[in-house]
Amino acid sequence: MSPLSSLLPAACVAGLMLAPCALAGLALINTGLGRSRNAAHSMMASMVAVAVAAVAYMVFGFSWQGVAGGPAYGVRAGATLWNWIAAEPLFMRGVNADSAGFPTSGLVAWMGLSGAALAALIPIGAGGERWRLMSISASTALLAGWTYPLFAHWAWGGGWLATLGTNFGLGRGFVDLGGAGAIHVTGGFTALSIAWIIGPRRGKFSADGMPSAIPGHNAVFILFGCLLALAGWTGLNIAGAILFAQADTPRLALAGLNTFLSAGAAALGSALMTRTRFGKPDASLSANGWVGGLVASSASCAFLPPLAAVLIGLVAGALVTLSVEWLELHLNIDDPGGAISVHAVSGLWGLLALGAFDHLPGSSGSGQWLAQLVGVATLLGFVFPLTYGLNWALDRIAPQRVGPDGERQGMDLHELGANAYPELVSHLEDFLQR
Predict the structure, then answer these.
(1) Is residue 48 exposed (0-12), middle (13-18) or buried (19+ Cβ within 10 Å)?
(2) Is the peptide bond before 103 cis (omega within 30 degrees of 0)?
(3) Is residue 103 within 8 Å of 375, Cβ to Cβ?
(4) pTM metric for this prediction
(5) How far apart (Å, rounded) are the C-alpha atoms in residues 19 and 97?
(6) What does the domain layout of the chain look like in residue ranges?
(7) How far apart (Å, rounded) are the C-alpha atoms in residues 145 and 135?
(8) Local structure of 370: helix, strand or coil
(9) How confident is the model over 246-280, as pLDDT tens digits?
(10) What are the distances in angstroms from CA 232 to CA 43, 80, 146, 246?
(11) Which CATH architecture has domain 5-94+101-432?
């Protein structure tokens, strides 16, 4: 091992230590984009979701995700083994603290747990102001304990997507070094499922289906959350590049550089798009564009030239802006935090962009593009129906949406018994209307 390569374990640990910044950033963004009567509930839901995700991943998730080269179940078709799911012991008993190799199972589990917690925060943005705390906990357990680790195994744990290159000559197989698909599209599709199942907020759509603007209450939370998210995403992307793409030390600086460039370009793209369409730049949509750029960078940031990172970010920013409008106008989907557009749409774009701007070592021709298409098709054709079906069944057991009185009062009072801002009674007139 070269002197620089010997720094990889320390760099991976440093990156994972930054991951909680992404959690804090996303929690603040979701809270700021909601109304003040729901601020404490949003932050409480974020903390509970992270806690439930951590426990569910510890009990079940890591057992299904596993480590590349570890025990797994598969189906053999001819000479090809389709690696389906890991077979690690429950309760993370397969994590070996004494392992001498690199990457260690402990680092992979730490990365997986961080991804599960981040994925759990994404649906809170779409279900904001009307999603019960207990339902958030149950849905998070399903996401972190089953849906997320299953796809993470396919992409990160030596599963069939990761071996498309070895088995079928499709580049290096499906690549998703920072979790654009495993974390963000999976979380984004859960957000879409929740938004569809529980329906829009009261007053969001008129009788003829036209959406009304319901602005967030704190732009400072939103923009500060963006800066925290940058730090967290940089850490996760660097750790993912080391663990799942075998990136060497010189590429880690490129990963950090491209993460920053993609976020900045996406924010500019959203600001320019809203300035052109509405006459003035929109702070909330620009912030969503910033996070969309971070998401899009997650698939390939260690293997892109900086110009490609800027182009990916610009497209992500434009896609987020257009997607938010399209979902409201054409599908009547109420997504207060823009989670579906930011995470699902930008994540899919980031995965496809990796194939379009293919600079992976050892990859050539159209094989990498096809591998990425297979991964995207799997997310659309399997992961989304799975997460929708699980949450639909959960809603049949116990309705996930709060009752009309709870939504009218605000989730702070209804579920927590106190407002985040007790000195403010700005929603009194709505509360008194019966």
Answers:
(1) middle
(2) yes
(3) no
(4) 0.94
(5) 21
(6) 5-94+101-432
(7) 15
(8) helix
(9) 888 889 999 999 999 999 999 999 999 999 988 99
(10) 18, 38, 24, 20
(11) Orthogonal Bundle (1.10)
